[in-house]
Inverse folding.
């Protein structure tokens, strides 16, 4: 089941790893994405740490790690096709993270709660 | 409480088209339309984009004695450009300077036979108009009963000639009046995108219907301020308040070309504008120590306004700052402009501090895209 953060990230549990992307709402707010800088695989990160730089035609923004853990994979194809974030935000994942603590997904919003947040 | 934002005569049209409206220089302006900045930018370079630039200041300057020479000479006391030498039916780019030779604003001025029509930046209109009103022997009238549109792109001529037959014969920087449905439109072949195109001053009574008529043409799409910015950046054109300030001189801003021969040392009307000694001195001996240049980051990350520039990958003092920067959709990569030491050669490498890391940036010729003006 998909979960959502207040920073407009979507999270998908994939066998103990969390796949992270941004929501359609976030990609609309950003505008056309033209540059993405991904973290290194194997990097250990704290919750809330900036791990991805995303530049749209308008401005630079950060994507933060939703939980503490280790980056296990990054979608390097995205760096060459940053526009995919606008074209299909739910498919354009940025990185996978292996959480330091189990059960962390429970603390995030479900679809209904997220929809309520963005109104 | 913030002052209420002004609205152009096309506000309702922008809202109806789904524009995102933002405050800009005291005006509520469309920054982008549903198409998005990238699409709007590329559409303008391939077809024709319609820009509402009604926020810009249109000012009529007419001689009290009916002799255009007196108006030209009055304007030349404030503007570092050859005004007198501008023939009727032509437009030119100019700079208001201060006593230190710094740039107070940049503007377009057109000789319309019995008066000059000036177009100044929206953000500077409140400064420029009182500045002009100090001149003796001329009447200075801000034009408030007209809006201003820009139609830009390779298909602009085809489109506009359908509505205003004859404009296709105009050359770059020509100005002319055209009648449309009983309204007198003032047309100039100019713009702020690097593309061929027109700027059209339209009476408020006809602004909406004329904009609708343009948008009815299949080649035309509404374009917002964000794409206007990326288009002008690729065209190497400075934006006042960012790339030009009261601290920068024409030579530093790489705008020496705007100062005609007649106003330079040894010219028929040498100097006579504020700060002329310094401005003309820099032109004559190349003594400006900094210069506005183009920058192409080697990587894909945009470098934006305010980013610090260094000579080396590590250490050393800051040598300059990015004044405008972003992603150039037509270039297909990041582009920027900055002030750097004048001795640094085109093609050389400098380093930009991006989020605490220095990235290589190549000093590049301006503009980044080849203009397609109809000379």
């Amino acid at each position: 089941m998909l979960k959502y953060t207040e920073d407009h990230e979507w999270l998908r549990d994939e066998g103990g790893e969390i796949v992270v992307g941004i929501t359609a709402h976030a990609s609309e707010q950003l505008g056309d994405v033209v540059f993405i800088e991904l973290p290194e695989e194997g990097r250990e990160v704290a919750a809330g740490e900036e791990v991805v730089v995303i530049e749209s035609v308008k401005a630079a923004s950060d994507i933060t790690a939703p939980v503490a853990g280790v980056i296990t994979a990054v979608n390097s194809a995205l760096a060459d096709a940053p526009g995919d974030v606008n074209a299909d935000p739910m498919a354009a994942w940025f990185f996978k993270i292996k959480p330091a603590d189990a059960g962390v997904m429970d603390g995030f919003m479900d679809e209904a709660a997220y929809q309520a947040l963005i109104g | 409480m913030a002052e209420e934002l002004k609205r152009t005569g096309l506000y309702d049209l922008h809202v109806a088209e789904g524009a995102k409206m933002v405050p800009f220089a005291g005006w509520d302006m469309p920054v982008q339309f549903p198409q998005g900045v990238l699409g709007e930018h590329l559409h303008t370079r391939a077809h024709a984009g319609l820009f509402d630039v009604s926020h810009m200041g249109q000012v009529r300057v007419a001689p009290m004695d009916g002799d255009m020479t007196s108006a030209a000479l009055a304007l030349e006391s404030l503007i570092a450009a050859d005004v007198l030498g501008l023939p009727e039916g032509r437009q030119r780019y100019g700079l208001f300077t201060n006593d230190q030779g710094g740039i107070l604003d940049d503007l377009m001025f057109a000789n319309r036979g019995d008066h000059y029509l000036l177009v100044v930046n929206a953000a500077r209109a409140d400064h420029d108009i009182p500045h002009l009103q100090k001149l003796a022997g001329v009447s200075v009238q801000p034009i408030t009963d007209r809006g201003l549109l820009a139609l830009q792109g390779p298909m602009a001529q085809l489109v506009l000639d359908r509505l205003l037959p004859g404009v296709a014969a105009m050359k770059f920087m020509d100005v002319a009046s055209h009648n449309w449905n009983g309204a007198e439109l003032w047309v100039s072949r100019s713009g702020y995108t690097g593309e061929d195109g027109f700027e059209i001053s339209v009476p408020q009574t006809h602004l909406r219907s004329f904009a609708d008529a343009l948008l009815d043409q299949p080649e035309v799409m509404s374009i917002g301020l964000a794409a206007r910015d990326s288009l002008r950046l690729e065209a190497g054109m400075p934006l006042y308040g960012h790339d030009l300030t009261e601290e920068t001189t024409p030579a530093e801003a790489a705008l020496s070309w705007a100062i005609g021969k007649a106003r330079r040392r040894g010219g028929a009307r040498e100097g006579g504008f504020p700060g002329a000694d310094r401005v003309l001195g820099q032109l004559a001996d190349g003594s400006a120590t900094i210069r506005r240049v183009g920058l192409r980051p080697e990587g894909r990350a945009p470098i934006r306004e305010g980013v610090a520039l260094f000579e080396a990958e590590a250490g050393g003092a800051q040598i300059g700052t990015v004044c405008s920067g972003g992603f150039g959709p037509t270039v297909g990569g990041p582009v920027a402009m900055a002030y750097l030491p004048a001795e640094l050669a085109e093609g050389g490498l400098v380093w930009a501090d991006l989020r605490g890391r220095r990235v290589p940036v190549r000093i590049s010729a301006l503009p980044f895209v080849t203009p397609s003006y109809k000379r």
Notes: Residues 289-367 of chain B form a domain with the Elongation Factor Tu (Ef-tu); domain 3 fold (CATH 2.40.30.110).
